[in-house]
Amino acid sequence: MGENTIINLIELKENHEGEIVLIKAGRAATQRLNEMGLVPGTKVKLVRKGPLRGPVELEVRNSHLVIGYGLASKIYVKIV
Amino acid sequence: MKKEIVIALAGNANVGKSVIFNQLTGLTQIIGNWPGKTVERAEGVLRFKGRTIKIVDLPGIYSLSAYSQEEIVSREFIAFEKPDVVINVVDASNLERNLFFTVQLLELHVPMVMALNQVDYALKKGIDIDVKKLEELLGIPVVETVATKGKGLQELINKVLEVVDSHKEMDVKRYDIKEEKVLKYRNEVSEYVMKIYDILLKHNVDLINLFHPLWISLKLIEEDSDIVEKLKKEPNGEKVYEEIQKELEGLKAKTDSPLATLVTADRYDIASFIASQTVSEIHHRITWTDLIDNVALHKIWGYISMLIIVFISFYGIFKFGEYFSGVLEDFFDGFKPLVYNLNIPNMYKDFLWNGLAEGIISAITIVLPYIFPFYVFLSILENTGYLARIAFLMDEVMHKVGLHGKALIPVLMGFGCNVPAVLGTKILETDREIFIASFMSTLVPCSARIVIILGTIGVFMGPQYALAVFALDVLVVYIAAYFANKIAPGKPYDLIMELPGYRMPALKPTLKQIWFRIKDFLYVALPIIVVGSLALEILKYSGIFKYVTYIMDPIVVKWLGLPSIIGIVLIFGILRKELTLIMLLTLSGTSHITQILTPRQMIVFGVVTMLYIPCIATIAALKRTIGWRKTWWVVFANIFIAILIGGILNRILTFV
Description:
The complex is a heterodimer of chains A (80) and B (656).
Chain A: E1 6-8, E2 17-23, H1 27-35, E3 43-49, E4 56-60, E5 63-67, H2 69-72, E6 75-79
Antiparallel strand pairs in A: 1-6, 2-3, 2-6, 3-4, 4-5
Chain B: E1 4-11, H1 17-25, E2 42-48, E3 51-57, H2 69-81, E4 85-91, H3 95-108, E5 112-117, H4 119-124, E6 127-129, H5 131-138, E7 142-145, H6 153-166, H7 187-202, H8 207-210, H9 213-221, H10 225-233, H11 237-253, H12 259-278, E8 279-281, H13 288-296, H14 301-333, H15 336-340, H16 346-384, H17 386-399, H18 408-413, H19 418-424, H20 431-443, H21 447-461, H22 463-487, E9 496-498, H23 507-542, H24 545-559, H25 566-573, H26 578-588, H27 599-611, H28 616-652
Parallel strand pairs in B: 1-3, 1-4, 4-5, 5-7
Antiparallel strand pairs in B: 2-3, 6-8
Helix pairs in contact in B: 3-12, 5-12, 7-9, 7-11, 10-11, 13-14, 14-16, 16-21, 16-23, 16-26, 19-20, 19-28, 20-22, 20-28, 21-22, 21-27, 23-26, 25-26, 27-28
């Protein structure tokens, strides 16, 4: 996968970075993600994934967020 | 000069608001390193330079939208109570995210002072902030503080007073977004803010006197449900809203993102801009947090270390409790002859010793030695930030019962006391989650019930049996939550949580917190225990017991296989769970439970006491959190589960 490929956030490898391009969730969920700083254009680093369908830990805006698997799978990122 | 001032503390979760509140007012608001403790708003008073300052600690929130009850409570407080100054408490080590909230406060145009907190921790992380520049950009005073050490708080209050004394009312009828210095949105958004503002002005909408026009207009662009409702309720409101919606069609045509996303993205851009102008990262260090998390959140080692931590806590509490309990018991037993050698009738001796002394002694010798180390461990787990790691590790497990990892934090707090656990479930987003999590919390043994199990099963049968009972409880809680999830209407939510960095708990606030929790036991529980013991002794002489036991015997004796007297102590246990054990000992005049209960009965008694009903205080907390109807449901579910499991254990544990 080269640059500019758009993938699902949970497909991002640990310690890899991406830029959010799209959030495909309901109104409330989108708003919650937006308010935690995840808006289109935001750079995120995937720090780690929990086992199985566990949550993902992201580094974003110099702080760490944990997002449940279901919600994370609604975020699409561009590899940078 | 205004003599009586109201100030509100507002800011993200976990930035030290509660610590500042405690330092200023001397009250003890429970602190801890996990997001979202101030679920009910706390108030205190500070007298300073001849003025009375009422301080209100608002819940920690990330935004002023209408997605959680806490957010609505906070913004309505600011709108309706009109505090003289809002102190925006900000975590210096995490400026950008915190500024997102600051931007929203700026939009409200309330008089503000910023407390740039935890500057020491930020410096350790290699982050330096240009305070002068920050003040200039935000247009409000900024004071550096280290709340845990009380640094900068005096100056903070001085600045607050300066702001109060120099404050001038602004004219909301003459607003122009072009005059904003730092609140720069994309052109389309700014343009539509002014268009909506013009519509609101034209129709004389009263809402702009409550909230600032900039904020209201942005909220209407975001289609904030609560603000839309408020607008519609005004005379002509429906029509005004229609006009605004028609106007917004133009903005919607220009973008394919939801309008709320545009506004939020702009706010983050403003926050990012301010951060980029003021923060210089001297060096990006690999922090301790990163290193520890490599193990603590690891797919395998994370779970192993979690189990090890739980075991160490368990054995630490047990060993400490067992030792000091023995020491204290020997000490107090020496006093018994003093009472019995008195020259008074035997009945009075019984009252004095069984009713009065035994109650206090049992409370001190059995309960206190376990409660103290328990709260020490709980405070450490809480203040270091480890509880949030448990939320990460257990997220998927919780998913099966319709909750997410964050819900485990209040539920785990239930091991201390169910009351804060139930109240703490308000950090969750939906009523459905709050209901399931409060129900789970009531089945988690609080410190009182842990003491009963450690002090009976643990001491007389061995700690491994006590551990087995707790393991059984975990299973019960999980199965109960599974069923609650099945019957509760609605859909589950996913986890979004900030992961706080590890902190070394500051000694003084932590000790204060432990003392505050133990104080609750000494001042609230002890009197109830003493009065309860005395009442029990009097009832014993009045002969009323035989009627009570007559009614309870079919369940207590026949089904659960316990001595008849247990029925009485279970009734008193509704007041305080410690009472069940203390009264049982008082009534049988011994501190050796083996003289009254066989090992099997001990286990059944322990399990039933652990599950049978929430105590009075917890019922009150449930009522406040989920309403009467669901509270009764929880109470009856607890009784049912206790009787069911107690009866089954009584039948299958024939080997002990």
